[in-house]
Specification:
There is one protein chain. With about 290 residues, this protein is of the alpha+beta class. It folds into 2 domains: about 65-205, Sandwich (Jelly Rolls); about 215-288, 3-Layer(bab) Sandwich (Phage tail protein beta-alpha-beta fold). The protein is built from 4 helices and 20 strands. The strands form 3 sheets. Strands 2, 3, 4, 5, 6, 7, 8, 9, 10, 11, 12, 13, 14 and 15 form a 14-stranded mixed beta sheet that branches. Strands 1-18-16 form a 3-stranded mixed beta sheet, sandwiched between helices. Helix 1 (about 1-30) packs across helix 2. It is globular and about 60 Å long. The model is unreliable at about 1-65 (pLDDT under 50).
Length: about 290
Amino acid sequence: MDIHKNYEKEIAAAWLDRFETEQAANYESLKRKAGISRRANIIKWSRITAIAACIAIAAVGGAMLQRGAMRQMDGRLTEITVPEGSRMKVMLPDNTEVWLAGGSTLAYESAFRERNVTLDGEGFFKVAHDKSRPFSVRSASVDIQVLGTIFDIRNYSRESKAVVDLIDGSVAVTGKTTGIQKTLKPDQRATVDHTSGLITVEETDAARSALWVSGKLYFTDATMDELLKDIERFKGVSFSHSEHLLEGELFSGSIRLDHSVESILRSIDLDHKLVWTENEDTIVITVK
């Protein structure tokens, strides 16, 4: 639609200077933070990358790994499951576009009279505007309600928290156990604790949360364990390692999801502290 095209141009232009300025600043900022050893695989943001990293992510949908299963449950419920190591684009009956990450399940009433979906996993949503019918994303711990907006939600039931990054528009995030509701503005992140239902809101560069749609995984201040879990999900591999692997080190940067697992591990292990070997279907990682 024309409104989205115009919006993409405006947002891309506004972000260009910020991305280019950050190239040098990112590394210096990381070095200044004392007390924790940090290594950065600094992202070189070109103009094309900056645009793709923002709202024009939709244009790369056709290049995604399109693997997933859609099934009708008793003719009333549609369920879409995406295996780990894959990504999938889905068009809902109301023309809302959804990109699902590996290990995600999306379900909704096939008739779609009410715009409600449930999600276990991660999804990037570009919600079709319909003032008369709000759009809701629901789960056991958090509800999100919008009219027409663009956001990323990561909400795996096996993780301890849900994370919502708002790129455009407005969303209301509600913790199910407390009933506490927070309304987000663009470039804000809400983190919802699955157990307590407490919600924290902070400023963020929201478009980065959706880089996985265009084939990149962006991370900031991630532990080795968190980073390996994401690689497992997006590359469809399994790692075995000590829970204290590189404890105290945080990682910031990006990795290309079309690179091999071997190449990704080498880019992370910049100071050659690690050794990894394949044992049947598992990659075993240890410290030298």
